[in-house]
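Input sequence (289 aa), recorded before submission:
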Amino acid sequence: MESLKEFLKGMVKKIRCSLEVETIDATDLTTEERLEEFRTAMSEREVVRRLRQRQGLVDPPGPIARYDLEYSNAGAFCREARFKGTHYWFWTPLLDHLDLIGPVWKVSHQPWVLEVGAGNGELLLALRRWYIGQRISAVETSEVAVKRIRKLGFAAYQGRLENLSLSRDFYDLLFLSYFVDRDQDQRGTFITSVGLLKKGGTLVLEGLFPCVLADSNGISYGQANVTKGDDAVEDISLVVNEFESLGASLHRVVVGQRLVCSLDGAEVLPSYTLVFKKDLGVMKEWRPH
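Predicted structure, token format:
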């Protein structure tokens, strides 16, 4: 844990030097209270993992099937589960400190907000606590996640972003939530997301870099078409260049830790949050391959 923290502090300096942009060190925001929550979530889910092994239950091999299982209620995942919520659990600095992305709207303005890759809905709930009104919606590829998000009271759409008929130049704030290293059409996602933003709108991409499109179990998620997967700073630079070619300028980078429990196990991962603003540049049109 401490070695990762020191590594990320070094990455703050490298990114600041390479991109010449405001780079915030959020590593100290991972408090002992959050680490204790993580340890509790980890121990609860480890019990379930052992129970599933004892019962001869095998995790599904495909990405969507794995997402559906992770975003199921604990009881559906395993009858003996004793924790609330979904098997997938995470914490990221944005859940407690949304102002890391810059000035946020509170009462005077009710923004239209879209989260892509909303998972178990935790960030949506945080956004609801921050914002007045119900102009918050989500996109997910998992049918189970979409049903869960709707039960939480949010509008939710199932499918890949570029295949949905969402309004262009509409959203004030759009999140791409920690799936860039699982996205085999990064370029299509980036083009579509910038097109959905209003001019002057904010796009927040939190991700794991470098992007290696395979998990610790050897499950492949395809082939990236923007990043190369060799070096974190190089991949971040490639993503920034792609967005800037679409008319979205990088305003800041936030570096911290993401605490995760998933089918891959319990992990403390790097979290790189890139904050872009859509400017008056000419947008590319995305077309199916």
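Checked by second reader. The longest strand covers residues 248-262.
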